């Protein structure tokens, strides 16, 4: 972690775990919707029962609105992941606001709901980004399993083990259903969900997890 990243983390209100004794986790996917991989993630949660959260970019929703609607219709949560996937910490206030507003508007036009949670691309956030997100009504969501690095395709076993190692009640777990070949993520998340289910966990959306009593 660079010094700048460390400072960002230190001042960040990004939520990676919500204090609760309930055996519940929020499994989340970034960078979709993706017509090939998003439906495979939905299959996992239909087969094993539970709900997930999909942090979509405006660009991907504009390309694949039917996939976005499928996510909504099958009971999952759609969150805001900006329109163009920039490093928000490098943008001025107006540009940050535009990224969030434009995407929120498109989500509402496409699936008819107001997104309530937001994940910054690259988890790059600072006080300005978080203030704007809060003003627009978003909770800023991180993830506990950054070491899984599923976007780098480190192998399904690595993604699974690095996620299991840090999963605990109230965790937000971060994966990707877009941006490249996500077949390792599909395999790892299927195994993760089966394993955690056997341990008594349930799979809830980000907003549901945030609403759980501690
Ligand atoms: Zn992303």
From TrEMBL:
Keywords: Hydrolase, Metal-binding. PROSITE patterns: NODB. GO terms for molecular function: hydrolase activity. InterPro entries: Glyco_hydro/deAcase_b/a-brl, NODB_dom, Polysacc_deacetylase_ArnD. It comes from the Bacteria. Residues 23-204 form the NodB homology domain. Pfam families: Polysacc_deac_1. The keyword Oxidoreductase does not apply. It is an enzyme of class 3 (hydrolase). This is Polysaccharide deacetylase family protein. It comes from Cohnella hashimotonis.
């Amino acid at each position: 972690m660079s010094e700048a990243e460390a400072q960002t983390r230190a001042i960040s209100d990004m939520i990676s775990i919500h204090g609760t004794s309930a055996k519940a986790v929020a499994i989340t996917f970034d960078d979709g919707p993706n017509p090939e991989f998003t439906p495979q993630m939905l299959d996992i949660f239909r087969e094993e029962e539970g709900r997930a959260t999909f942090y979509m970019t405006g660009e991907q929703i504009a390309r694949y609105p039917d996939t976005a609607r499928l996510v909504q219709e099958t009971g999952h949560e759609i969150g805001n992941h900006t329109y163009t996937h920039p490093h928000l910490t490098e943008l001025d206030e107006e540009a940050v606001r535009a990224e969030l507003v434009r995407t929120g508007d498109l989500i509402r036009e496409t699936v008819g709901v107001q997104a309530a949670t937001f994940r910054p691309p690259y988890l790059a956030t600072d006080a300005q980004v978080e203030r704007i997100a809060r003003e627009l009504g978003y909770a800023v969501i991180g993830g506990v399993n950054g070491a899984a690095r599923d976007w780098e395709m480190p192998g399904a076993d690595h993604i699974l083990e690095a996620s299991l190692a840090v999963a605990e009640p109230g965790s937000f777990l971060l994966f990707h259903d877009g941006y490249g070949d996500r077949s390792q993520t599909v395999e790892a998340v299927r195994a993760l969900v089966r394993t955690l289910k056997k341990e008594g966990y349930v799979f809830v959306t980000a907003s549901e997890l945030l609403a759980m009593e501690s």
